[in-house]
């Protein structure tokens, strides 16, 4: 298997010149770039955003997109349900529209995503075994072939590992077709488009000490050892109080890079505001700039109001399209390559054959000593026929060792997906319990989990029980 198209070779050459590790020194530019894409390009990188195709007709949205970004990812339009709504009948209209918008403006396109447990069309959700494996491989082959030469990098497989300690694979219909489903997807993508960069993409893989990060690391290491065609690892990097930016983020980036893959920050958003949010954005950019194989950053939306977590105001532009302090921090970090504040841990310089640190056996948060009492509140991002609910769990005066949140879903509402919690039930009275790393909450502190549903989520009043 040789994944060596002309473009891949060029990129490798550039990376080789930069040296496969860390620490790059930049010559100061004569005049500082004034947009994110132009500035990133001066660093040999891209700066992208997720795009919702139906917003391209929104002038304010399109103006910022066209001015600032040199890479796009379809927020939803290249997912399995969007591209193959009926088996073997492909609908490329919206995705093609985005690709054409991007390519006519010299933006590159990241493809998201070929194989995923979520956003499967109904016909695929109901499949299993050999039939599902074949259908998945057919989807990968058809879609990668359709976009051959137009998509620079594909998230071939998305979110295949479970949350929590242990580093297990996520249970799904795809996983139940056999543990080799991920490499089978990569081989099919490689056959269909030998020149596209093929990425594994996931969330909660930013903190180097978390078991999920280590498990993905070991899979990539194994793929490289056995010649499974993988070129890159995508870190989604959705940061908030429950899943904060870790001080060892640069270690995570450089450790994956040392395996011989590119690293891309694929869905960046950071909940917060003002200087605190700006500083975290600055740190993320500086961490990427410090790792030669961190080839680009994509933010998951343009304005705060475009975000899947709009209530957390996690993006670089406010709802009116004004640049936020976070924008200024990102642009100046790209232009200057400044040292992050606070300093991050020193990245390893070697090419480790085993993970440089031992995954923790205890959760990363400080145990508060246990006790009863917690509250939960929910914020909703709704549309006709569906919603994303973000639930904030706040510990009472004694802190928690674990928690359980009960929600009565309105009639007709169904949970389709959840994160940072273990869900039980999909309609009526449903319960979400902490996963291993977020059960312990110090007194007065909070964590967040979320779930997506169909129907209306309006009027949910969560109740919280602590242990
Ligand atoms: O807008 C349509 C509406 O017209 C239609 O009636 C309705 C019917 O279901 O769907 C609406 O679209 C919804 C869309 O969000 C609106 O923004 C989709 O159903 C809904 O599924 C979709 O949620 C997306 C979610 O992935 C799906 O899993 C979010 O936009 C998108 O930001 C989010 O992105 C994911 C990445 O792919 C993977 N990593 C996590 C990230 C955040 O959840």
TrEMBL record:
Positions with biased composition (Pro residues): 340-367
Pfam family, one: CBM_2
GO term, biological process aspect, one: xylan catabolic process
GH10 domain ranges (all copies): 30-333
UniProt-listed Gene3D superfamilies: 2.60.40.290, Glycosidases
Catalytic site positions: 267
Transmembrane feature ranges: none
Residue ranges annotated for the CBM2 domain, each copy included: 367-467
Entry's EC annotation: 3.2.1.8
Record keywords, A-Z: Carbohydrate metabolism, Glycosidase, Hydrolase, Polysaccharide degradation, Signal, Xylan degradation
Residues spanning the signal sequence: 1-32
Superkingdom of origin: Bacteria
Region (Disordered): 333-376
Catalytic activity: Endohydrolysis of (1->4)-beta-D-xylosidic linkages in xylans
GO molecular function: endo-1,4-beta-xylanase activity; polysaccharide binding
Protein family (similarity comment): Belongs to the glycosyl hydrolase 10 (cellulase F) family.
Protein name: Beta-xylanase
Natural source organism: Plantactinospora soyae
